[in-house]
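Why do we bother with holo predictions? Because pocket geometry can differ from the apo form. Keep that in mind while you read this record for NDP.
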Amino acid sequence: MTTTIEVGMLGLGTVGSGVVERLARSAAKIEQTQGIRLHLAAVAVNHLNAHRTVQLPIGTRLTDSLTNVVCDRKIQLVIEVMGTVATAKKAIVAALNQGKAVVTANKDLIATAGPELAALAKKRGCDLFYEASVAGGIPILRTLTDSYVTDNVQSISGIINGTANYILSAMAAGQSYEQALTTAQAAGYAEADPTNDVAGIDAAYKLMILSRFAFGQELSLSQIAPVGITHLSASICQSAMENGWRVKLLAQIQQHGPGLYCRVAPVAVPVDQPLSQINGVQNAVAVQSEAIGTSLYTGPGAGSTATANSVLNDVLVAAKHLISGCQTIHNQKDAGTLAVTRFDQLTQTYLGFGKVAPQVLKRHADEADFSVKMITNNCYQITNLSATQREKLSAALPLTLVPIAGTADWTQVAENPMATTVNVAI
Ligand SMILES: NC(=O)C1=CN([C@@H]2O[C@H](COP(=O)(O)OP(=O)(O)OC[C@H]3O[C@@H](n4cnc5c(N)ncnc54)[C@H](OP(=O)(O)O)[C@@H]3O)[C@@H](O)[C@H]2O)C=CC1
Ligand SMILES: N[C@@H](CC=O)C(=O)O
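The structure, written out:
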């Protein structure tokens, strides 16, 4: 027997168009294998007369009124793929208040208002799913929810912004920053305004969501203080590559005793580490846990088709719940109580890029506790650099400092005698 679920969608851009296309392609398969017919009743957009790359199914209503969709009594499930924070929040709250299931790809909103929306969903007995909000096509949130129940996550290290990874990979291949960003925008990887992509804010939002799932811990943007990629150049990426590293925008979170250490910043990853091989729009999330050890989840992190696939997987889970009447178990972990610190507070090894005479750098090193090795004319390896020394060095010399993955010195960090310390290489 086939049951029809009435669906409304907010947004028909890169992701929304992908949803329409994938829905059309897989309708028969969904009906055959799941016994569900997803009927797209209405779609809301900003500009009614804008050119569309997809054709809506016959009978689907196109409107420029969000209310027209979220307040339609027949609609049982709302897909929010329009972006924005305040407007999307209002629409989602309205949908949940009317008992509709909600699926969204909106990391900005979920990072900043996720717990509040989850509480409302719980109160209303509705599903609120957002798999596509982290790492696009990789089903990482459901994996963390379902496959780590008896396990303990110790660290996560990921490449979780497709645009930034695309730009860094293209710069390592010799393209300019501007060229690479333009291509990433044309491919639909970047946000409507790409500032968050290149400033590390998009990756920080995703890390905030991952932190909830992995550690039950809320993080704020100011605690992460993300560093983006706008200060990097093709010559830095190429110089790192020629000498055994790949510069990647890493989003990291690691428990160490009673502390949770986090970072979103460009990091030099040694070529023999798997994350260094993740290129273009690909994302990867390396999870280190007590029971499994290291697992690496990879896949496309942005783009129409991959993101739409994640959205539709959520839609199908929510549709099944609507049909069976079974309530979602909103098993949010208690808010964590770990002390949050940034990785950049730890002494570690850096690559320093810039036109600085070796004797000048050596003089700074002799006056402090760090050591310097010249790699090439414009590239130095600076070992044992503390946070204070790094700040002094940055103020004194025109050097771009990029931390090397896996070099943080944990011996100076206060230990909780009850907790186990994990040495994570990445
Ligand atoms: N692009 C990607 O690869 C990924 C995107 N996401 C997230 O998915 C969401 C959508 O992204 P994307 O598809 O790229 O965005 P786009 O900019 O391509 O599309 C946004 C769509 O929303 C519509 N829209 C915007 N504001 C309103 C409004 N106030 N009322 C009605 N419609 C509105 C626009 O209408 P109109 O077309 O008329 O202008 C457009 O159709 C964002 O939250 C994004 O962060 C998540 C993972 C990957
Ligand atoms: N702009 C984002 C889209 C997916 O979340 C990215 O580039 O990763």
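The mean pLDDT is 95.
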